[in-house]
Amino acid sequence: MTSTILLTFLLIGARIVVCQNATVLSATASTTSSGSTSFVTNIELSVEDLWDLYVGPVSTFSINTTVEPTPIPSSSLVPPPTLYYPPFPTGQQAPFQPKNETWKFPADFWYGVAGAAYQIEGAAKDEGRGPSIWDVLSHRATNYVVTNDTGDVADNNYYQYKEDIARIAALGIKAYSFTISWSRILPFGSGPVNEQALRHYDDLIDTCLEYNVIPQVTLYHWDLPLFLQNSYGGWLSSKIVPDFTEYARIVFTRWASKVHYWFTVNEPIVFCGFYPLPENYFKKVAIPEKQQPYVCGHNVLLSHAAAYHVGKSINRNLSISLKHNGGYKIPLTNSPADAEAVQRAWDFQESWFADPVFINGDYPSRLKSYVSTFLPAFSDEEKARINGTSDIFAHDAYTSDFIMAPDTGIEACTSNASHPLFPQCYNTTKTYANNYWAIGPAGDPGTPWLYKATDWVPAFLHYMQNTWKPRGGIAITEFGFSEPYEGLKTELVAILIDPVRSAYYREYLEAILIAVSQGVKVVGTLAWSIYDNFEWGQGYSVKFGIQVGFLGVLFFIFFLKPFHTPLSMVFADEELVR
Ligand SMILES: *[C@@H]1O[C@H](CO)[C@@H](O)[C@H](O)[C@H]1NC(C)=O
Ligand SMILES: *[C@@H]1O[C@H](CO)[C@@H](O)[C@H](O)[C@H]1NC(C)=O
Ligand SMILES: *[C@@H]1O[C@H](CO)[C@@H](O)[C@H](O)[C@H]1NC(C)=O
Ligand SMILES: *[C@@H]1O[C@H](CO)[C@@H](O)[C@H](O)[C@H]1NC(C)=O
Ligand SMILES: *[C@@H]1O[C@H](CO)[C@@H](O)[C@H](O)[C@H]1NC(C)=O
Ligand SMILES: *[C@@H]1O[C@H](CO)[C@@H](O)[C@H](O)[C@H]1NC(C)=O
Ligand SMILES: *[C@@H]1O[C@H](CO)[C@@H](O)[C@H](O)[C@H]1NC(C)=O
Ligand SMILES: *[C@@H]1O[C@H](CO)[C@@H](O)[C@H](O)[C@H]1NC(C)=O
Fold first, then answer.
1. Of 82, 386, 400, 483, which has the fewest beta carbons less than 10 angstroms from its beta carbon?
2. Which ligand is the nearest neighbour of the Cα of 44?
3. Does the Cβ of 60 fall within 6 Å of ligand 2?
4. Which pLDDT tens digit goes with each residue over 385-408?
């Protein structure tokens, strides 16, 4: 631990020169934030040194070269007994809506599955990958991951992707959305490019195309190259803008001819919310804690916009978008205070990133009145570059919440920076105003934010279309459900049946169909997730997979849930998708 902290200090003020496969830090005397002066000359850091100094040893798995797919066992293709489903659709909130046989998803509607590099790839140190902040968070930051799990091996997708893609194709799924590990392509985040990583993703993309599965690529899903965090504070510095842009340029240049759907950053509300990072593991920054997420967001918007323009300059036809997240916001009561709370919730969630990108290049007014005290306003030139930089409204929309004013009222919060809800100054609950019933069935206790609330999906889709008017329509780029207590089950037969998740997927898709029939343009959906995986702070304890993963040393076999997989079940029963 001492060496970690020491090096973090030494990096402050260092001038970084990147060579072929090592990074040379050369600095003259520099004064650290603690006031002491350190002298550093010509420290040469290899990728291996980054691992040794900041992460330590990682676990490996026996399959450590790219393998061909094994056949899908016919035993896993036995149809299950029918599950009970209520009439179309369920829910006490939405008025009962009988199915209309003329309703159809558009012919080019894509339904797919999603995964993210750190959550599924494994092979943490292999083939030149540099560490990301998540290698430190999972290995070093005490209790950051409640189970102490890491992504070292995860689903071993890095070596078994051919099998994963074969299974996606066998399920009849049209699209696979994966993310690229920035620190595989650029182990230091900038500087030398790792050709082996480029060749890996070449083959991953080619394998999708070979199986007729549409590849969709996200550039950034939270795995910030560690070196960028320690050099200048990662997303907290505007230095990240040229580095992200260069990374995007490398990736777009390589695959623009093969990949049509691109996403720049995944859920910035969440990853900007990681700031402040836990103390002692990363470079310290002087920005006050509550301001850090918004400084991150500012640099994210500038980085996203720059990347968008780079992609468009390479091929105007690419679909490039930022991935938003959030839920529908239902006023708890009809009071004016709750209505204002709902507006604050939109402004501090979706609109934070969606208004700049879709409406006018600028933050929404309620957010602006907070950030204007510490962030530079976007210049007119920046606004013009940010406005219009998403081709579709890509929304990770899992659930909904009731929104209400804080107990003290909104004004007592907005005027008091010490208020626990400052600066957002709205409160949320999963319980109706009767204070008794929940909004819907709960997911796993490890995901207290997730309840099934599919009744509000049509209203949510109308809101997205009316508010942000995305020219290319809306895609639900993540939706899914953590089947309650699945992590406690040990028998495969018990794990295979997912009653709540099945109802969630089925009714969510029915709700999309209703909205489509009412004129909302929805172009596709991506189920989260391709299989059970490393769910960040929850490790492997919560299960979102539409395939079961038995993770650990003994088993590494994925069991398909082909007919209990809610997607295929809906599609088989309802023939909703052609
Ligand atoms: C890069 O690393 C390899 C293997 O360690 C070494 O053989 C090679 O000389 C290095 N290249 C440079 C430019 O340092
Ligand atoms: C790959 O795994 C095998 C065991 O399956 C092991 O013997 C070998 O050392 C591993 N290779 C590397 C490069 O880790
Ligand atoms: C079914 O939907 C079509 C097109 O939206 C509409 O014209 C028709 O009236 C609907 N049928 C019923 C029974 O609601
Ligand atoms: C995780 O590791 C920490 C520190 O080593 C330990 O205190 C904690 O009990 C561990 N948690 C679990 C779930 O094993
Ligand atoms: C863009 O799309 C149009 C219409 O689909 C097509 O004619 C054109 O060749 C495409 N251009 C590129 C650069 O792919
Ligand atoms: C932002 O772009 C939209 C079209 O995408 C346009 O209608 C609007 O006028 C622009 N707003 C500003 C402030 O430039
Ligand atoms: C927020 O709402 C919860 C109930 O969901 C309540 O217990 C809590 O006191 C509220 N917090 C504030 C600051 O209003
Ligand atoms: C501001 O909020 C804090 C924390 O809730 C509270 O202790 C304090 O009394 C509030 N200050 C004022 C002026 O209301």
1. 82
2. 1
3. yes
4. 999 999 999 999 999 999 999 999
Question: What's the gap in Å between 435 CA and the centre of ligand 2?
Answer: 56
> Cis omega (within 30 of 0) on the bond before 177?
no
Ligand 3 binding residues, C-beta < 6 A: 100, 102, 517
Domain that holds residue 520: 79-108+452-578
Q: Kindly report, residue by residue over 349-381, the tens digit of the pLDDT.
A: 999 999 999 999 999 999 999 999 999 999 999
The answer to pTM > 0.85 is: yes
Nearest ligand, measured from the Cα of 419: 8
| 494 within some domain | yes
Distance from the alpha carbon of residue 515 to the mean position of ligand 8, in angstroms = 44
H-helix or E-strand spanning residue 333: none
Report the number of distinct structural domains present in the chain.
Answer: 1
Closest CA to 263 of 478, 512, 529, 499: 478
- Structure confidence at residue 510 as a pLDDT band (50, 70, 90): confident
Centroid of ligand 6 to alpha carbon of 388 (angstroms): 7
The CATH number that applies at residue 538 is 3.20.20.80
Give tens-digit pLDDT for 30-82: 444 554 554 544 578 899 999 999 999 999 999 999 999 887 766 665 555 66
Q: Does the CA dihedral 291-296-301-303 come out positive or negative?
A: positive
Task: For residue 555, give Cα distances in angstroms to 121, 374, 551, 552.
Answer: 16, 51, 6, 6
Q: Name the helix (H) or strand (E) containing 502.
A: helix 499-517
Q: Does residue 55 belong to any structural domain of this protein?
A: no
Q: Judge whether 294 and 272 are in contact, CB under 8 Å.
A: yes
Establish if 92 belongs to a structural domain.
yes
375, amino acid identity: L
Compute the CA torsion angle 152, 154, 160, 161 (nearest 10 deg): -110
**Top mutation candidate among 17, 18, 21 for ligand 1, by most atoms within 8 Å of CB:** 21
Instruction: Show which residues are catalytic.
Output: 267, 478
Contact 510/573 with Cβ under 8 angstroms? no
How many other C-beta atoms lie within 10 A of the C-beta of residue 295?
22
Entry field: residues in the chain: 578
CA-to-CA distance for 323 and 302, rounded, in angstroms? 15
Where does ligand 6 bind, in terms of residues with CB under 6 Å?
360-361, 387-388
The yes-or-no verdict on residue 532 having pLDDT over 80 is yes
pLDDT tops 70 at residue 205: yes
Report yes or no on 491 lying in a domain.
yes
Q: End-to-end distance of the chain based on CA atoms, in angstroms?
A: 56
Q: What is the 3-state secondary structure (H, E, C) of 103-172?
A: CCCCCCCEEEEECCHHHHCCCCCHHHCCCEHHHHHHHCCCCCCCCCCCCCCCCCHHHHHHHHHHHHHHCC
Looking at residue 549, its pLDDT comes to: 64
Place of tokens 């004064």: 31
**Which among 288, 274, 297 is positioned nearest to 144, based on CA atoms?**
274
